[in-house]
Specification:
Length: about 250
């Protein structure tokens, strides 16, 4: 799930992913297979595969699983053929939602996505009616920076590597760039001796819809239901929910 860019949302997304690791493994294997089949199986020549492998590493996906996924993509092992598809729709209060899937059955995936929208108070939209509300960007998030890190020097390095926006929120630094500049931005961070908690190409909303209370709950219920589907790789939404709401959710879960 990816909503607006506040740390509370990102943290909530990460914690949800940690709770469903087995599901993540299956999704990562699909993504690696798709990226390796659609491009060069060498990640040095395939940014999409390199990004998928970075996510797999962060999730502690076993190396054998990664190796088998790439071998299936190259035909060295028999495997399933996956296709990519994107669906568009709206959640409560007109929140725009983009759903990216990787599936072996597009008809099944489309029917399932439509059912999830309908069941959770949302609605599907025609192609292009939602996508224009988002920009495809690279994003890097750094958290819990060591005291010895020179933030000014770090920001200069990020700008030199292609960052077009940097948001320093004290405990986190979030930088965005053109999708093609993400590898350079990631390398710049590593040269500073830092490891990002998030480094990926994503869809960032051009504007957001503020929701709260019951509406916020309905939006998250829909987005989470989509995110949990086995064929769904990413869910992007332009909601803006106050940090306090996520803190309340954390307290309820603890």
């Amino acid at each position: 799930m990816a909503g607006h860019s506040k740390w509370a949302n990102i943290k909530y997304r990460k914690e949800r992913q940690d709770k469903k690791r087995s599901s993540i493994f299956g999704k990562l294997i699909k993504e690696i297979t798709l990226q390796a089949r659609n491009g060069d199986p060498n990640p040095e020549n395939n940014p999409g595969l390199a990004q998928a492998l970075e996510r797999a590493k962060a999730a502690n996906l076993p190396k054998d699983n990664i190796k088998r996924a790439i071998m299936r993509a190259t035909g060295e092992l028999e495997g399933i053929s996956y296709e990519e598809a994107t669906y568009e729709g709206y959640a409560n209060d007109g929140v725009a939602v983009l759903v990216r899937t990787v599936t072996d059955n597009k008809n099944r995936a489309a029917a399932d996505i439509r059912h999830i929208f309908s069941k959770n108070g949302g609605s599907m939209a025609s192609v292009g009616s939602v996508a224009w509300l988002f920009d495809r960007k690279g994003i890097i998030v750094l958290s819990d920076l060591p005291d010895e890190v020179d933030r000014d020097e770090l920001e200069i390095a990020l700008i030199d590597a292609g960052a077009d926006d940097i948001d320093d929120q004290d405990d986190t630094i979030e930088a965005t760039c053109e999708a093609s500049d993400l590898p350079a931005l990631t390398q710049a961070v590593k040269e500073q001796g830092l490891t990002p908690i998030r480094a990926e190409v994503t869809m960032i909303p051009k504007s957001t819809v503020h929701v709260e209370g019951t509406s916020a709950g309905k939006v998250l219920k829909l987005v989470n239901a989509l995110d949990e589907h086995e064929d769904v790789q990413e869910v992007y939404a332009n909601f803006d929910i106050d940090d306090e709401y996520f803190e309340q959710l954390e307290e309820e879960d603890s």
